[in-house]
Amino acid sequence: MSETDNEYLKDIDVLKIMDRIPHRYPFLLVDKIEAIEPYEWAIGVKGVTASEPHFQGHFPQKPIMPGVLIVEAMAQTAGVMVVSSLGQESEGKLVYFMSIDEAKFRRPVVPGDLLKLHVTKKQQRGPVWKFEAKATVDDQVVAEASFAAMIRDA
What we know:
The structure is a single chain. By secondary structure, the protein is an alpha+beta fold. 21% of the residues lie in helices and 42% in strands. Strands 1-2-3-5-6-7-4 form a 7-stranded antiparallel sheet. The protein is globular.
């Protein structure tokens, strides 16, 4: 990648995210990508708002973002990183979850929180990518997980 390509991989807005992954409301869980180091790491951002549909049932009197959605937000950040890293090679392909390991939830995430999604590639063999990720709020770890994904034809 050239220097100009690296500049492009900063501050990726939601419209560019939607160009890279197929998720849409209410299941698009990344609002912005702050930065990507191709093939290495990415930092995504998710603003948690009270109007999100899952809060109607989880839990109406004390809204808490479900942990599986935090892991999904980390995985979507990884998906954007994979597609952004591969460029044209990724056209006509999707990134599919393969496994989730060692997921831990450290504290509840509630409306008003700004989730930062830190994803690091640990290994890549062919179409299979392995990641470690953590989600933070105000620099405190709220969740972490290891997971694998595969890029393949849509």
